Every structure is written in C-alpha cells, then in structure tokens.
Amino acid sequence: MHNPRGAVLRAIGERRIDDELTDIRNDDLRTSDPDLRGKSGPSGNGEPGEPAQGEPERDPRADGQSEARSQVKIVIPADRSMVSLLGSGDELLHVIEREFNADIHVRGNEITATGNPAETALVADLFDELLELLRKGTDLTADAVERTAAMLRAERGVRPADVLTVGILSARGRTIRPKTLNQKRYADAIDKHTIVFAIGPAGTGKTYLAMAKAVKALQAKEVNRIILTRPAVEAGERLGFLPGTLYEKIDPYLRPLYDALHDMLDPDSIPRLISAGIIEIAPLAFMRGRTLNDSFIILDEAQNTSAEQMKMFLTRLGFGSQVVVTGDVTQVDLLPGQVSGLRVVQDILDGIEDIHFARLTSHDVVRHRLVGKIVDAYERHDAQERRLGAANSGRPTKRKHSQ
C-alpha cells in the first residue's frame, strides 16, 4: 500500500522500484502557475486570500481543483532496458498514457505520474506488472499492456503477470497462453473438472484454448485420442445444395477445427494422426450410439445443438474421458421454434459436481479490438429490443367492432 506522505521501497524478485507519492495541495498548484500568482493572500505563501477588486469570489470545487492529487516517482532498475519497457519510439508509453487519466513523464530511468491518487497508484502497479512480465521472459506488446491495465482496474488480489505468463502449450515455436483472467479460470477449470462448458461471444478463445488443452493431454499420454465434433447446421445456407460427397459437404463446417490443429501440431503429422484414429473430426450426428473412452472430446458451436442432441452427446462420455463444450448462445442458427441445447443445459446441469460452466464476455475477446465493441453493441441492441418487446406486449390491444 502506498504511503502518500513518505517513500515506499518495494522489492520484488531481483528488482527494486522506488515509489514516492506526494500530495500536491490545490493552493500549491495555484501559486506555481504564473497566471494565477498574486491571487492568493498578501503573504504570498499560497494561503487563500481575498479576491481581487471586482473579481467575483470563486468556489475552488467548481473547476475540480479541490480534488486530491498525488505524484508517483518510479525508478526503473538500471539493468532493465527502457526501450523494452516503453517500446520502440515510446509506442507502449503512448498506450499507457491512453489507458490512464494521469500525466506521465519519463527522464532517464525515472518515470513520474501525476494525477488523482487512484490513477497514479494504478500507474505504479502497471509498471510493477510490466517489469515482472519482462523478468519472466515475456515480450511486451500494446495488447499485453492494455490487458494488464484492464485487469488491474477490474480485479483486486490478482496479478496480471501471473495470468499472462501461464503456458498451456508450447507449439511450433510459440507458447499458447490465456490472455485474460476469465480465460485463465477457464483453462484451470478444464484441469479440475470432467465436463466444462465454455459460453461466450466469438473471439474469446473458447475452442482454441480447449484444443490446446486436448493436444497437451494427448502429448502427455493422459488420453489416447482427441475427438472434435460440431453440429452441421446451416448458417443461412443449405447444406444439400453444396457440391461433392457428404464429407466434402460437411468439411467447411469442420474447417475451423483443422485450422486450430495446424497451429498446434506439425501439419505433416495431422493426416497420419487422423488416419490412425488418434484424432477424429466428425459431425455431431456421427457420435450417436458410441461410448467414448480415454478421449478428450470437444463439442464446438454447441449453441446449434437441439436439447435432444446435447443429451445424446453428453451421454457418450466413457471412462478416462474429458469433455469441453463451447458455444455462443447469441449466435444460434437453428430453425425458428427450436430451442438451443446449450441454453437448456445450463438449467438442467447447474450445480452438479464435476461439471463447470465458464462464462466469457466481450472483455475476453482476443481478436481485433473492434470485435469486443461489436459484441457490446449487439448486446445493447438486443437488450433494447427485448425492452421494447416487453413494453409492446403489455399494451392493450384494440378490438375491431363489426359494422
């Protein structure tokens, strides 16, 4: 906790950060401004005095100057590169300035932030986390800085550096990691539960993280095979009119699963694994009548299952197997009148031991930043439509009178 009247020395690992917080009184700010100098008391010591002749008396609260302000001085250890911390051409510093309502200045290895105490404390915490990320070997990016700032604002008692440095799978020269706290909780839930439902909008990493967990389990010989399945439901197109054989017709629906596999496995090994039955990618209808033992099973796009299909799928679970079900209940492609099995199952299975529901939001979107804003805009639109629908349904209908 920062001490606003003194200096706090924090030592984390091998690095030390000196944080000096100084309250800047409103009067001191006024006397330091040449344009305002002389408007204080006769003594000139910054004490408020009488207003100048003809000048109306002002309430300092009117322009917000009565708010407490603080200054934080952060000294970066000499063994840390300021370029790696602030980015080439101060790119990351500009991101930090956008994220916080504080004046941030850099001189050498000293960073000073001035503003209200809450904001300056967050700035100090941010640099604390960024240094920890660098210490753990993580290259800082604008996305990492934005996500670290968002977690600091949203959560207390959770270190963003601990979230962003958790490795799920190292594949093809890179490490797959959760990028938000909810994603980390989702990944942890897969380790702890037999059945996990991941429900959230597009781009939140539901399928990708599940696939990484499946590949890791296969490599560790925790399971003998991976089974990936999706309902082959048309999203505005008719499946029967697509050219080719049945497999060629359903292949476009399964293609996203192939794409994720190619990110995590050597592409040359995938056909061999599929041919040997170690990896199976098939439509949901192909699961009927089977018992799936020693398998990591992922049902993707589960919002497009009917209630009956969801029950059929879940009862395929055999010994030594694990199930992850992913879907977005706001993008259902079922025919009008059909109820999504993913919506129904939340009420049916809620509270059953060893079954977990992970819920992700627009804040967990890891695609282009506009995707999260698009999701939020649609949610607001849908909420407005529901309110209008409820209001209209409560209006009395006019009776038509016969002549």
Can you characterise this structure?
The strands form three sheets. The chain has a six-stranded parallel sheet with strand order 10-9-11-12-8-13, with helices on both faces. Strands 1-2-3-5-4 form a five-stranded antiparallel sheet, with helices on one face. The chain has a two-stranded antiparallel ribbon with strand order 6-7. About 30% of the residues are buried. It has 13 helices and 13 strands. It starts with 6 loop residues before the first strand and ends in a 10-residue tail after the last helix. The radius of gyration is 29 Å and the shape is globular. Strand 4 and strand 5 form a beta hairpin. It has about 400 residues and is an alpha/beta fold. Helix 3 runs parallel beside helix 5 and helix 8 crosses helix 9. The N terminus is likely disordered. Helix content is about 35%, strand content about 20%.
Structural category? alpha/beta
Name the poorly predicted regions. Answer: 1-52, 58-62, 235-239
Estimate the helix proportion, in percent: 25-40%
How much β-strand is present in the residues?
A: 15-25%
Mean pLDDT: 80
Q: Would you count the extended β strands for me?
A: 13
**Biggest beta-sheet profile:** 6 strands, parallel
| Terminal CA distance | 80 Å
The tally of helices reads 13
- The oligomeric status of these chains comes to single chain
Strand order of the largest sheet: 10-9-11-12-8-13
Give the ordered list of helices and strands: EEHEHHEEHHHEEHEHEHHEEHEHEH
* Overall morphology: globular
How many whole angstroms does the radius of gyration measure?
29 Å
